[in-house]
């Protein structure tokens, strides 16, 4: 039976999370995995080489050894496990699943702030901090999406919550109220 991409990511992400937590190195492993994700997204050939069925195991191992030298023992062991079980093609998905578990444990959420104009990092942080405080989270990481059609204000979407404070939405509500009164 072949596992789906999601099943592989869930299993390996959970295994890495549990292992890092048990060894009390969760924050360090998280930081290293986020750096690794950035690196493999910037250089996708790394995954191609390590998951190439034509290359022999020794060449792959030598290549991985060169890459992993700056990582902790835990991350090195995990990367070698992925190589041994031919799961490198799923690396980014596994890291994403691990990050979801890490964020849930630490009460961190990610979301999108849609605005008519671009927000700077400080504005995004303050907006995230207000949301985090309101919903009893430790932090909220926000990505800014610019949509001039909302005219002003902000539409905040974090997990399954959407707060629409856009001028466009307010005008729509006023319009509906005026139509209902007539």
> Beta fraction of the residues?
5-15%
Which percent bin holds the helix content?
55-70%
Number of strands: 4
**Most strands sheet:** 4 strands, mixed
Mean pLDDT: 93
Shape: elongated
Distance separating the two termini: 64 Å
Oligomeric grouping of the chains = single chain
Poorly predicted runs: none
Structural class: alpha+beta
Notes on the structure:
- This protein has 182 residues and is α+β, with helices and mostly antiparallel strands.
- It is built from eight helices and four strands.
- The chain has helices spanning 5-22, 26-42, 45-50, 57-68, 73-84, 91-105, 121-134, 167-181; strands at 108-115, 139-146, 154-158, 161-164.
- It has a four-stranded mixed beta sheet.
- Helix 4 (57-68) runs antiparallel to helix 5.
- The mean pLDDT is 93.
């Amino acid at each position: 039976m072949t596992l789906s991409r999601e099943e592989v990511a869930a299993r390996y992400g959970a295994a890495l999370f549990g292992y890092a937590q048990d060894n009390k190195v969760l924050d360090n492993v998280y930081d290293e995995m986020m750096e690794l994700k950035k690196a493999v997204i910037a250089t996708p050939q790394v995954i191609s080489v390590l998951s190439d069925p034509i290359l022999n195991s020794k060449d792959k191992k030598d290549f991985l050894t060169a890459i992993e030298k700056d990582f902790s023992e835990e991350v090195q062991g995990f990367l070698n496990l992925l190589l041994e079980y031919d799961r490198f093609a799923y690396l980014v998905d596994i890291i994403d699943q691990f990050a979801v578990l890490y964020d849930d444990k630490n009460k961190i959420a990610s979301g999108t702030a849609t605005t008519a104009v671009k927000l700077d990092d400080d504005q995004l942080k303050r907006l995230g901090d207000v949301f985090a405080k309101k919903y009893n989270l430790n932090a909220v990481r926000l990505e800014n999406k610019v949509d001039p059609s909302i005219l002003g204000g902000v539409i905040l979407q974090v997990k399954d919550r959407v707060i629409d404070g856009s001028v466009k939405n307010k005008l729509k509500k006023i319009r509906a109220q005026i139509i209902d009164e007539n």
